[in-house]
Design brief:
370 residues, alpha/beta, Quinone Oxidoreductase, Chain A, domain 1, Rossmann fold, 2 domains, six-stranded parallel β-sheet, 11 helices, 17 strands
Length: 370
């Protein structure tokens, strides 16, 4: 066995290098060493690569900045390599894990002690969140806090979820993305005239992987027509094949029941407001990074009786059912077509450049060599 682990490391904005780190020989009790099988490049990863690193703006307890050097990668699937002696590690279904089990790890670990945790709020509201691939610096041992590596270290108590045997790695790696679509279930619980009902029209602005996942989920929940808005023809084509979404011009869409704004940039918010019908619902998802303010007149919310949902991320409680949903529909929905490219860890710089080119890429994966 090699005594070092290769990992793509962001040492500064636009500087992604492949570095060697010590193989973790001693694990904390209950900690898990994950042999990586695949890790996705997320929109947040692109922001961080460019130096746009002020995440969760507006929250004094959650706001954070750059943590260079950083091993990125929070959309992950891997195989349990080892578990720290002295405590067990458990899957989301409550069963103990063993080496060889294929799992999807949660991208964050809540503290369990702060006020939001004690009130049972979703773990992305934790005030002391450990955020893998985003805010745990690689200069802190055991270093391997992100998925763009051959191995990943997971602290005791990190959420881990078994992957159904029928679900291939290139689909399972997108579990975190699909788990964010609990946003649609929250919208469905809103009272009329807002909410989301079978037969409603849905528009998704920005159909990268997160937007495509929302389009897929909207279809599964009974949406009537689904429209996709994006500058990238490639991504529009993928959304059409995977979710049956119709490409549309933002200026031509009106009276939409539900609009999902998934661009991660503030400029699209005004478009979403113009599209939605009076009394309709806007879901703002994916804008985790401070990209500046969008001028907006709040009187429009009252005058048009709009409902708005800001989604801070996936919910730990939906992972198991998300994996089950993806496995159930794997034969009828071509999830794998959401992935356009795969690169080895050693080629991570090229992977990022490909991911930044929206005209030729969709979801880009980093998959360590076998």
């Amino acid at each position: 066995m090699s005594t070092t682990v290769q990992a793509a490391t962001l040492v500064a904005p636009y500087q992604l290098e492949v570095r060697a780190y010590p193989y973790p020989e001693a694990l904390e009790p209950g900690a898990v060493l994950l042999r990586m099988r695949a890790s996705g490049i997320c929109g947040t990863d692109k922001h961080t690569f460019r130096g746009e690193v002020d995440q969760y703006p507006g929250s004094e307890t959650k706001a954070r900045g750059a943590t260079y050097p950083l091993i990125q990668g929070h959309e992950n699937v891997g195989t349990v390599e080892a578990i720290g002696e002295g405590a067990a590690a458990y899957a989301g279904d409550g069963t103990p894990l063993s080496p060889g089990d294929r799992v999807v790890p949660a991208p964050n670990r809540a503290c369990g002690h702060c006020r939001p945790c004690q009130r049972g709020f979703p773990y992305f509201l934790c005030q002391n969140l450990d955020s893998y691939g985003n805010a745990l610096a690689a200069d802190m041992a055991p270093h391997l806090w992100g998925g763009w590596a051959e191995y990943m270290y997971l602290k005791p108590g990190t959420g881990l979820f078994r992957v159904p045997d029928s679900l291939p790695d290139k689909v399972a790696v997108m579990t975190e993305i699909f788990a964010v679509t609990h946003s649609l279930e929250r919208a469905a619980a809103l009272p009329s005239p807002a909410g989301f009902r079978p037969g409603d029209t849905v528009a998704v602005v920005g159909v990268g992987a997160l937007g495509q996942a929302h389009a897929v989920k909207a279809g599964l929940m009974g949406a009537g027509r689904i429209f996709a808005v994006d500058h990238s023809q490639k991504r529009l084509d993928v959304a059409a094949r995977v979710a049956g979404a119709e490409p549309a011009d933002a200026e031509e869409l009106h009276d939409i029941d539900l609009v999902v704004d998934a661009t991660g940039f503030p400029g699209s918010f005004g478009q979403a407001v113009r599209m939605v019908r009076d009394g309709g619902t806007i879901i703002e998802v994916g804008a985790f990074v401070d990209m500046g303010e969008e001028t907006f007149n709040p009187a429009i919310l009252c005058g048009r009786n709009l409902a708005m949902l800001g989604i801070g991320g996936e919910d730990l409680l939906v992972y198991d059912r998300t994996l089950a949903l993806m496995a159930r529909h794997a034969d009828s929905i071509p999830f794998a077509e959401m992935v356009s490219h795969r690169f080895d860890v050693a080629d991570a710089p090229a992977a990022m450049q490909t991911a930044l080119d929206a005209e030729r890429s969709a979801k880009v994966l980093i998959t360590p060599a076998a």
